[in-house]
Design goal:
The complex is a heterotrimer of chains A (103), B (486) and C (131). Chain A starts with 6 loop residues before the first helix and ends in a 13-residue tail after the last helix. In chain A, α1 runs antiparallel to α2. Helices cover 76% and strands 0% of the residues of chain A. Chain A is built from three helices and no strands. Chain A has helices at 7-27, 31-56, 60-90. With 486 residues, chain B is mostly helical. Chain B has one domain. Chain B is 78% helix and 1% strand. Chain B has 21 helices and two strands. A two-stranded antiparallel ribbon of chain B has the order 1-2. Chain C has a domain at 63-128: Methane Monooxygenase Hydroxylase, Chain G, domain 1 (Up-down Bundle). Helices cover 59% and strands 0% of the residues of chain C. Chain C contains five helices and no strands. In chain C, α4 runs antiparallel to α5 (93-115). The longest helix of chain C has 24 residues, at 10-33. Chain C is flat and about 70 Å long. The chains are: A mainly alpha (103), B mainly alpha (486), C mainly alpha (131). At the A-B interface, α1, α2 and α3 of A face α6, α7 and α10 of B.
Chain lengths: 103, 486, 131
């Protein structure tokens, strides 16, 4: 399998996905979408890990993705719970309307 | 990766984390079993757990060295910060007794999450491997996200929690991407290994590693609330339950700085000239934004949050120095800062009343007449935050700027000192309120000091004064540990 | 032997083109050749006679969120079993003890959520879930 897709294509894809996540985080207004953007970023990183692991012929990178996935799941559980309480208290999921903390 | 087997010495070096995790899990299981609300028992248990972890940390230090095939490194540096975050945990629980009782929200989850968070921080400070850092960071952060929103019915706490969660995970993703790039370019995630690859022949291109370092800088910058990544800090500190704000400003921050110092002075030491300007700018920006924004705050928790940004700036000055003296100064400063800031927040928590109504600086007027002890302790913390001699804050700043001068950072030192002068104004304003005004609504309504709170005020005050009068003891240890770092 | 990845992936390209062509062609063919009837019955989701009962977009009880979340957590924890299985024979007792610790931790989490009433489906005992 020498002549497979070059490694940097995967890295480019990962970078693009990560950038999409960042853009989604910055420009989307729905909290759930913002949260999904973060998950996208984490998964983009996972893709990088797997690619590097393949390139370096090491098994480490694959293991890191396991840890990242578990952490992402824990984060998702906590995050959704937080989003739910916010929705219960304010009945909105627009991030611009969650702004009661000021001087 | 060799050495997969856990030997007895591995377990000993991992003792504080084990104790905290087991006790945290136990607390969680106990909660549904105990039908009677016995919040004090939970508090006592978690203090017991933290005391056990403290003993474990010291025992681990006496049997120090690498653990789990070099994934952890129990050295003076790790122990210093480990003890610091554990003490911060204890000092958070002390004012929590009264605080939780007042809000009618006593559960074991609060304590369990706090223990998990401290366990994560212990893991962070001992981690010698980027994935371990990441896992520790996440254990600590995820628990803190929940703790920030612990008062579920409180709109402000919800919002704080949401913002902390979104920006925190955003930052983590950046950090993780940096880790991935380091792994790809050097083929290792061991900090010493990265150092070897970067300083050896055939080092990967600086652009690639530079991007990785920058991404990790962004991630850690968020966690230590350094400018320009500080936007979440005021909102979170204001909205979170006050003891938790105190905790966030001490524990997770100190642990994140420990990681910052360890990664940037070991793994990234060979590219130090590359990241120095970045940290330089961030230090200056943090100090300036923090201090000038704090001037305009009327809410005390918000003011302390901006002051915490400014203090992060001072610690970054020490990091910019890129020397062992600088690392030791940062360690000393973080210890002093943990004491004075937790103490200050404990006073705020004492005064805030049910539903945290009283959070304004005006609410402190006349506190000295009503409760001289609380006012006196608060004065010690504020004077230390200003950096008046005989307090820990003074020597902290002194050592930091000394280290900066030794590394020829003259401009940064001058601007930092000017900043400290500005900072004096907003701290002194509270002193004036407490001692020169007549008691107002909040101070009239203030309840007597509970035993827990009394301890929560006196212990940090003693710590602050001790560091101010006998700084050498801690500084010597920090100095020795910062040498061990490489 | 293919010499570059472009050659290697050429069959994939061909297959993708055929798939798209077939789908597009069939749709176009039915559009051109088919007879168009539009009335209320024809536009119903089940033309064959089942009467629709309401909107497909329904709001679900928030209880499902809890179940879904717990499922995800326990599901994801299981991925650690895969690498464990691979090295189990080499590490023997050590791997066994490690997995025992892991499973005990998971079980204590399970016990906690059980006792907290998160598995209670009846919905009558919601108060137990609150603190």
């Amino acid at each position: 399998m020498m002549s497979a897709v070059p490694v940097y294509w995967f890295l480019m894809l990962s970078a693009v996905l990560f950038a999409l996540g960042v853009a989604g985080f910055l420009f989307r207004r729905n909290i759930i979408t913002v949260f999904m953007s973060i998950e996208l970023m984490l998964n983009a990183v996972n893709l990088s890990f797997v690619t590097f692991s393949y390139q370096l012929k090491q098994v480490n990178g694959h293991l890191f993705t396991f840890f990242v996935m578990v952490v992402a799941a824990a984060e998702a559980a906590v995050g959704l719970a937080i989003i739910l309480t916010v929705f219960k208290n304010r009945s909105t999921l627009n991030i611009d309307e969650v702004n009661s903390l000021k001087n | 990766m060799p050495g997969n087997f856990a030997t007895a010495s591995d377990v000993i070096r991992f003792l504080p984390e084990i104790i905290l995790a087991v006790m945290g899990t136990l607390l969680m299981i106990l909660d549904p079993l105990l039908h009677r609300r016995s919040s004090n028992a939970f508090g006592h248990l978690s203090i017991l757990a933290l005391a056990g972890a403290l003993g474990g940390a010291i025992y681990a230090y006496l049997n120090g060295g690498p653990a789990f095939g070099g994934m952890l490194m129990v050295d003076g540096f790790a122990t210093f910060f480990g003890v610091l975050v554990i003490v911060a945990g204890i000092l958070t629980i002390l004012p929590s007794y009264r605080f939780l009782a007042r809000q009618g929200a006593e559960t074991s989850e609060y304590h369990a999450l706090l223990l998990f968070s401290v366990a994560g921080q212990c893991l962070m400070v001992a981690a010698n491997d980027l994935i371990m850092v990441f896992i520790g960071l996440e254990i600590s952060s995820i628990s803190s996200y929940i703790l920030a929103g612990y008062l579920r019915e409180d709109k402000r706490a919800n919002e704080a929690s949401l913002k902390y969660f979104l920006l925190g995970s955003f930052a983590t993703a950046f950090f993780l991407y940096g880790v991935a790039l380091i792994y790809g370019s050097t083929g290792t995630i061991n900090l010493a290994g990265v150092n070897v690859v970067l300083s050896g022949p055939g080092a990967p291109s600086l652009v690639f590693v530079g991007v990785a370092a920058a991404l990790m800088f962004v991630g850690l910058g968020f966690k230590v609330s350094a400018a320009p990544f500080q936007v979440w800090t005021p909102d979170v500190y204001q909205g979170a339950p006050t003891p938790i704000s105190a905790f966030l400003s001490a524990g997770p921050k100190a642990a994140a700085f420990a990681v910052f110092l360890r990664i940037f002075t070991t793994a990234f030491a060979p590219i130090g000239h590359g990241w120095e300007p970045l940290v330089w700018a961030s230090a200056l920006l943090s100090m300036t934004i923090g201090n000038f924004a704090a001037l305009q705050q009327s809410n005390i928790k918000r003011m302390l949050a901006y002051s915490s940004i400014a203090h992060a700036g001072y610690v970054l000055v020490a990091l910019t120095a890129r020397s062992e003296v600088g690392t030791a100064a940062a360690m000393f400063y973080l210890a002093a800062y943990a004491f004075m800031n937790i103490g200050a927040f404990a006073v705020v928590s004492h005064l805030s009343g049910k539903g945290e109504r009283y959070q304004n600086i005006e609410d402190f007027s006349g506190l000295a007449q009503k409760q001289p002890l609380a006012a006196a302790m608060f004065s010690i913390f504020l004077l230390s935050l200003i950096g008046v001699p005989l307090t820990g804050g003074f020597f902290g700043k002194f050592y930091i700027f000394k280290a900066a001068l030794e590394s020829h950072l003259v401009w940064l030192t001058v601007l930092g000192l000017l900043n400290s002068a500005v900072a004096a104004y907003y701290y002194l304003r509270i002193l004036v309120m407490m001692y020169m005004r007549e008691p107002a609504e909040a101070t009239e309504a203030v309840e007597p000091l509970s035993p827990g709170l009394r301890l929560a005020l006196i212990v940090p005050a003693i710590g602050t004064l001790f560091l101010g009068i006998f700084p050498n003891w801690v500084l010597d240890f920090a100095g020795k540990s910062s040498v061990l770092l490489k | 032997m293919p010499t570059s990845y472009t050659e290697l992936y050429f069959p994939v390209l061909v297959q993708a083109l055929i798939a798209m062509g077939l789908a597009g062609g069939l749709l176009t063919a039915s559009y051109i050749l088919g007879k168009r009837v539009r009335n209320r019955v024809k536009d119903m989701p089940y033309e064959s006679g089942i009467v629709p009962t309401g909107d497909a977009r329904q709001r679900f009880s928030v209880k499902f969120y809890l179940v879904a979340m717990l499922f995800i957590l326990f599901d994801i924890e299981a991925i650690f079993l895969y690498p464990w299985v691979v090295v189990y024979r080499e590490l023997k007792m050590f791997a066994f003890v490690e997995m025992l610790v892991f499973v005990i931790l998971i079980l204590s989490g399970f016990f906690y959520m059980w006792k907290k009433g998160a598995l209670d489906w009846s919905g009558t005992d919601l108060s137990r879930r609150r603190r």
